[in-house]
Specification:
With 173 residues, the protein is an all-alpha fold. It has helices spanning 2-17, 23-51, 54-74, 78-105, 112-140, 143-172. The two termini are 31 Å apart.
Length: 173
């Protein structure tokens, strides 16, 4: 959630100040990402259930979101950035669906809502703190440093998920 909060907060600034996009082009980029997530979510859910390896899909989702960030950092070409947003939208569907499905797989039905509520609350702490850290990075560095921070958050999420997946696989054997 931290990486997502940073992305939502700073992509519009990046699009306006670095890529020199107008508000419509920037909004269209978010729309492409949203449509991509909407369209991919049912298929990702089905794939997640069939594979049974939800953490792998979480990691794939974060990787695809990282590709989205790298694409818009490397070009200001509208079509390429929209393709990156399309890829990132699929990544968002992979991550969100598989993350919450994984949590649901390991929590008893009677305490599921309470536990997920606590997880969402903890994630919101990251959503509050990370944009502030990004603002400090922007003040002492540049707008690029915000997205390097974003990529570091994505890499950290992938590393944590890989460690969880490894521990989970070890316990199942």
């Amino acid at each position: 959630m931290s990486a997502y909060a940073v992305f939502l907060t700073y992509f519009a600034l990046y699009a306006a100040h670095i890529m020199h996009w107008d508000p419509f082009a920037t909004s269209l980029a978010f729309t492409v990402s949203g449509i991509s997530t909407l369209a991919a979510a049912p298929f990702v859910g089905y794939l997640s259930d069939r594979m049974g390896d939800r953490l792998l899909l979480c990691m794939l989702g974060m990787f695809l979101i990282g590709i989205e960030v790298v694409v818009f950092l490397s070009t200001s070409s509208h079509p390429w950035v929209y393709v990156g947003m399309l890829i990132g939208g699929v990544g968002g569907a992979c991550y969100m669906d598989s993350f919450f499905a994984h949590i649901g797989d390991h929590i008893l039905d009677e305490s599921r809502s309470s536990v997920i509520g606590k997880i969402v609350s903890a994630a919101e702490i990251g959503s509050i703190v990370s944009p502030l850290v990004a603002a400090l990075l922007m003040e002492v560095g540049s707008l690029y440093s915000v997205f390097v921070f974003n990529l570091v958050l994505i890499a950290a999420a992938i590393a944590v998920q890989a460690a969880m997946r490894s521990r989970y696989k070890t316990r199942r054997v």
